């Protein structure tokens, strides 16, 4: 199975950390493999403790549905097709920005999840991390 490995996860996290430092917002950054299993996680100095779980679950969500969490969130509002999805998977589904699938050769090989700032900040940091793959 084509999946993100530890060396790749570390490079992704490093790129995301650099962006978080650049914008001055400490973050929790998680990378999961193609099965949604945690490969690596970093909690930057000063990042919120409550965001550890959120970052891991954003990565899981993004891989579980092969969608950016911000896009899933748009479709999970009242009267939208995925309303209530956040209650599935034992509450692990995150429906706000910061989770992005990681692809190689057109195949999803994992995902990154970032939490610790505003949705826009989380998304920006996740995008920089994802671009490192």
TrEMBL record:
InterPro entries: GlcG_carb_metab_protein, PduO/GlcC-like, PduO/GlcC-like_sf. It comes from Arthrobacter crystallopoietes BAB-32. This is Heme-binding protein.
């Amino acid at each position: 199975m084509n999946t993100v490995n530890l060396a790749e996860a570390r490079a992704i996290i490093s790129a995301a950390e650099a962006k978080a430092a650049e914008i001055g917002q400490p973050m929790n950054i998680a990378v999961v493999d193609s099965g949604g299993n945690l490969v690596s996680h970093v909690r930057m100095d000063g990042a919120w403790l409550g965001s550890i779980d959120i970052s891991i679950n954003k990565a899981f969500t993004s891989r579980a549905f092969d969608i950016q969490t911000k896009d899933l969130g748009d479709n999970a509002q009242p009267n939208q097709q995925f309303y209530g999805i956040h209650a599935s998977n034992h509450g692990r589904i995150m429906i706000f920005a910061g989770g992005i699938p990681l692809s190689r050769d057109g195949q999803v090989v994992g995902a990154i999840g970032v939490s610790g700032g505003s949705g826009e900040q989380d998304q920006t940091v996740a995008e920089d991390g994802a671009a490192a793959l």
